[in-house]
Fold this sequence. Notes:
Layout: H1 2-12, H2 15-30, H3 46-51, H4 60-159, H5 162-175, H6 181-190, H7 195-202, H8 215-227, H9 229-232, E1 234-240, E2 246-252, H10 257-265, E3 277-281, E4 304-311
Parallel strand pairs: 1-4
Antiparallel strand pairs: 1-2, 3-4
Helix pairs in contact: 1-4, 5-7, 7-10
Amino acid sequence: MASHGASLKRLASGQGLQYSHACLSAVSVMGGPDGVGRHPIADVSADQAASAPPPLRYNFDNDRRIVEQVEAEIALRQSHAEAVAERKEAERQAREKRLAAERVRAEQAAELAAKEKAKREQDAAAAAEQERRERERVAAERVEARRQAALEAQTEINRLDVEKQNKFLQFQGIVGSSSDALTRKTFLERYNWDLQTAIAAFFEYDGDENNIPSADAQQQQQQQQQRSPVAAAKAVVEFAFPDGTTEPGEFNATDTLWIAFEWVYGRAQRFAGRRGFSLHGVDRGVFDEAEYDRTLQELGLCPRGRILVKIE
């Protein structure tokens, strides 16, 4: 196909035409075999003419075939180029159509996700509001139940004799008023109004109103503690009161400082009246709240110790 293109270029430049003129000129110069028609300037001998190459003959049919082949090749290439262009255009349109469909799907997916998110947030807000209202309702019912229980407890306390009312006030003064009155009264009743055991049980109480320990459970716990070697040890503590008097108290080594505080509280009327008091170590200051949960042995008051009682 490259030779066909070269032939076409040769024809287009006129080389083929010049070549055919050269051939005709050679024929006319050489003339026929008898010398007739010889060109006047072609003065050659007969030997030279006999040794000359045969005249060239140009085949014009050859050029026509080449032109036809070139034209067919050009048409084929044009057809191929048009097919390629059509395919590329079809691919471009298909790509644009696919991208447009993908954009539509992405927009639809984003819109659906936004709607689902808004619905989840709305449902979560509604659930939170419902939960808040439920908590408020339960809290209001609990407050009302406590108020009614407090009224009933106060009514029952008012019906107690003077001795039990005094014990109730003493118990409340030691354990505080963070719990409701009915719980404090229940503690005293379960421990047969024994202040010392009720106070000891209260400070081990976990705050569950439905799980107030009984006197039997407390007694079993004390018996288990007494069986252990540490619990068998005793602590004799000498208390120095503000009025200058002293009095020893005997406790178990595993008793906490709260028990000693209750022991002092039972004797506070004679030196403090209605004023408060605090417990102090001999070589240190006042005992802090955390130390009241420690045992006398942990505080170094076993087997013997001394505590100073000071009025607030």
